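ARCHIVE CARD
CATEGORY: sequence design from structure
SOURCE FIELD: tokenized fold
FIELD CONTENT:
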């Protein structure tokens, strides 16, 4: 496995001193992670028992033709990323339901045979409304088909707290999310490792890759991640380049961009800093995919406002192309330049072309090159981005582990659903804001 971070021009020269201070601060922050490891690092050092446990559960669940994951946010995106990166043809075997749009939920459910379907219900808190509603719907569906829900449902939740844990006490099988690991940092717990094992991906290899990345950052004084985080922070806070584009030249890594966006957005976008001052900090993650978005977003990236910085992921090209091209000139003379080449070569040429065009337009680009996409590499990428996020939070002086900004919408939704105890809180939040008017007809 090789992962290389490179190509950056560094922070603007006028901020060299601030960059040096930032670097020193991040080194201290890494030492603090060593001294008091947060949950997502602790799990990397806890041996392989959890991977073994996931393999055993997966073996038992193979009796089902299909597994449906019920969860949302950090409880769904990690599994989706693993499936799409490492088992991209298994979308039918592992269905991930990370929304409650009744249209898609019901259409999906009606394609399933309840007798052949196992459900993984994933929620750290155990009380997320979307997941609770999905569970209620699917439990009834199983019961109506004459199935025993407890035989079909596996719960992945906090070891002690929450309504799902209580349900586990009533006969459903369950796995634990360690108490100190929050939703968006939970991919290397059973939240991601059980779906991985179900797909035939080795959970130990994911953990091993994550551990290797943590050790590299921990042990290498000059680890390039620190430079990237410092440059990122300075450009965002001082240079106004507040949008962090993560563009993958790989369909398999498309969902990794979504996973990163949730991690980065929810961890860094904060009203208050650690001292309680109102700061409204954060940098906006924007996932993109090459070459597709060359025909969509790249125009904006090259010529639009200079408010973005770019991390471009790519794979080292294989020595033997997967998709050689021939007969192009016969099809049309204008296609002749493709003859004797390959899709692989065109893809690579377009990746390089985009990077160079962005740089020529003065846009800051860092590249992240992978030798291949396998379980170890993906585990390493997860931990790389988790570390980048907590280190970026250090520079922004915000708490990466909370998400107070999502509470308001939840409280209002609960009040509207008639949940006891929420009306007053919702009223206090809404103040004078009235319900939306129907709007003016357009047609
Ligand atoms: O990162 C987070 O904490 C959130 O995005 C959660 O993952 C999401 O809200 C789902 O929460 P839970 O796992 O408690 O159902």
């Amino acid at each position: 496995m090789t992962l290389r971070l490179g190509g950056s021009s560094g922070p603007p020269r006028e901020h060299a001193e601030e960059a040096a201070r930032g670097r020193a601060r991040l080194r201290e922050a890494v030492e603090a992670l060593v001294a008091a490891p947060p949950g997502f690092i602790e799990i990397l050092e806890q041996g392989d028992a959890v991977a073994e446990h996931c393999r055993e559960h997966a073996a038992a669940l193979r009796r089902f033709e299909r597994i449906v994951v019920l969860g949302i946010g950090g409880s769904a995106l990690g599994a989706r990323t693993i499936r799409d990166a490492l088992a991209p043809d298994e979308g039918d075997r592992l269905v991930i339901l990370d929304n409650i749009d009744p249209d898609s939920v019901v259409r999906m459910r009606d394609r399933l045979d309840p007798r052949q379907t196992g459900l993984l219900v994933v929620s750290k808190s155990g009380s997320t409304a979307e997941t609770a509603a999905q569970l209620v719907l699917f439990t009834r569906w199983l019961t109506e088909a004459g199935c025993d829900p407890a035989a079909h449902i596996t719960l992945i939740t906090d070891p002690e707290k929450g309504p799902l844990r209580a349900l586990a006490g009533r006969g459903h099988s369950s796995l634990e999310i360690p108490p100190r690991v929050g939703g968006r940092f939970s991919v290397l717990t059973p939240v991601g490792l059980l779906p991985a094992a179900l797909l035939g991906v080795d959970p130990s290899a994911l953990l091993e890759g994550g551990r290797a990345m943590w050790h590299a950052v921990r042990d290498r004084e000059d680890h390039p991640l620190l430079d990237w985080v410092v440059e990122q922070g300075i450009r965002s806070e001082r240079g106004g380049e507040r949008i962090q584009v993560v563009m993958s030249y790989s369909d398999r890594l498309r969902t990794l961009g979504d996973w990163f966006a949730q991690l980065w957005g929810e961890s860094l976008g904060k009203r208050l800093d650690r001292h309680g001052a109102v700061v409204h900090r954060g940098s906006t993650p924007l996932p993109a995919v090459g070459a597709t978005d060359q025909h969509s977003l790249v125009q904006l990236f090259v010529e639009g406002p200079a408010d973005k910085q770019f991390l471009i992921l790519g794979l080292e090209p294989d020595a033997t192309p997967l998709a050689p091209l021939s007969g192009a000139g016969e099809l049309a003379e204008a296609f002749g330049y493709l003859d004797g080449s390959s899709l692989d070569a065109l893809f690579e040429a377009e990746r390089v072309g985009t990077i160079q065009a962005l740089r020529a337009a003065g846009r800051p680009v860092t590249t992240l090159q992978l030798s291949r996409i396998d379980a170890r590499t993906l585990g390493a990428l997860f931990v790389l981005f988790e570390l980048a996020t907590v280190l970026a939070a250090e520079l922004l002086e915000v708490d990466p582990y909370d998400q107070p900004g999502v509470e308001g919408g939840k409280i209002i939704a609960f009040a509207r659903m008639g949940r006891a105890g929420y009306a007053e809180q919702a009223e206090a939040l809404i103040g004078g804001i009235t319900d939306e008017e129907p709007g003016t007809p357009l047609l």
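CARD ANNOTATION: The first helix runs from residue 16 to 35. The CA atoms of residues 75 and 191 lie 6 Å apart.
SHELF: design records, drawer C
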